[in-house]
Amino acid sequence: MKHILQVLRFEYLGIIKSKAFIITTVLFLVLIIGMAFLPGLILSIQSSGDEKKTETDKQVIAVVDKAYKDENTVKSEFAKSFEGYKVLISTEDNDTLSDKVDKQDYAFAVVIDEPLAITYITKNNSLFASQTARVAETVKGIYQTTSFDKLGVPAEISAKIISSEPKLSTVTTGTDQTKNYLSAYILMMMIYMAVILYGQLVAQSVVSEKNTRTMEMLITCAKPSHLMFGKVFGSGLAGITQLAVIVCTAVVSMRFVSMDSLPAELREMMNFPVDTALYALLFFVLGYFIYSFLLGAFASFASRSEDLNTLISPVMLVIVAVFMIVVIAINSGSVDSTLMIVCSYIPFSAPVAMFARAALSDVSIIEIIISVVIQLVTIYLLGMLASAIYRVGVLMYGKVPKPSAVIKLLSDQHKTNKAIRASKKGE
Fold first, then answer.
1. What are 33-77's pLDDT values in tens digits?
2. Contact of 143 with 115, CB cutoff 8 Å
3. Which superfamily does CATH assign the domain made up of 60-156 to?
4. I need a surface site. Which of 21, 114, 130, 131 has the fewest CB within 10 A?
5. 400, 408, 10, 2: which is closest to 223 by C-alpha?
6. 89 near 106, Cβ under 8 Å?
7. In terms of pTM, does the model score above 0.70?
C-alpha cells in the first residue's frame, strides 16, 4: 500500500503542476464565468435595443386578406401574434409579394386565400422557424372570432372562449423527467467527456514514461500492480480535483451572476437534484477506473506516441458506442427499454446507462447496488489484468505485438510466477 501511495502522490502532483493541466483549468474557468455573464449581457443588449427601436425600424409583414374582408380584425390579430413586427395590409399579387420578400422589403408575407387556406411567402424557410405555426394559429383565431360573430356571440365572450386554457396539475409518483432531463443530460455529458479526457491522461503518461525509459527504472523499484494502481488513482484524483474546481466555479457563477436573468423555467431546470449529482460523481469514478485500466494496459504496448491512438481506438469506439446508445434511448423516451436495462449491468456501459436510468427513471436502489458491485468487481479484475499486461508491455519495444503474442506472454508469465511460488513453498 505504501508504494501505491507513493506512486499516487508522484502522479497527482506531476499532473496538477503541469502547464497543460493549469492552462486547461484556467481556460475552463474563464469560459464558465463568461457564459455565466452572457445571458444577462444578451438580455440587457436586447432590452436597450428594443427601447431604441422605433416603429419605422420594425420589419414589415405583408398580409393580403382575400377571405374575411375585415382589415381591422386581421391587422389587430396579426399585430398581437407578431409584436416585434409592423403589420401591413396589402392588395399585391403573389409575384409582387415574393419579389419584395426576396429583396427583404418584407420579413415575410401571408395571403389568406380562403378562411382556412393560407399561402406563406418567405425568403429562407428555416428548419426551426416558428413563424408558420404562429401564422396558422393567428388565422385560426380570426376564423373562430368571425364565426362566433356571425352566430351573434359578443367579441369579448368569443375571445374569452378562444383564449381559455385548462389548468393542469401533475402528480408524479416516480421520477419527473421534465425537471431532471437537462441536469441529467449535462451530467452525462460531463461523465462521458471526463472519462475520455482523464482515461487518455493515464495512457499518455504510460507512453511518456516508456519513451523516456523511466518505466524501466520504476518497474525495478515497485511491483507493476503498485505502479498501475498508483498511476490510475493519481490521475483520477487529479481529474476529480479539476472537476471540483470547475463545478464549484460554475455553481457560484450561475447562482450569483446570471440565474436571476434567466427565465423561471430554465432556472428550475438548472437546479441539479442532489441525488442526481451524487449519482453522477459515483458513476464517473466507476467509469473512469474501468476505462483507465484498459487504456493504461493498451498504452503499455506503444513504443512511440504515434502508436497510442491506434492501440486505444477499440476502447474509444466502445465509449462512443455506449454514449450513442444512451443518448438515443433518452431522446426516444425509452430509458427503461430492454437494451438499456441490459447495458445497466454490462461493466463497460453501466456507468453511463445506469446513471441515465437512475436520473430519469424509477430505478430501485437494489438495481443500482447490483450494478455498482458488478463494476467494482470488474475494476478489481481489470486492475490485476492491466498490471499483468503492464509488466509484459513495458519492456517491449519496436512493432506493436499481436493479441495472440500478448496472450502467450501473459500465459508464460503466469506459469513462471506459479513455479516461483511453488518453489518458495517447497523451501
1. 776 666 556 655 555 555 555 555 678 999 999 988 888 888 988
2. yes
3. Periplasmic binding protein-like II (3.40.190.10)
4. 130
5. 2
6. no
7. no
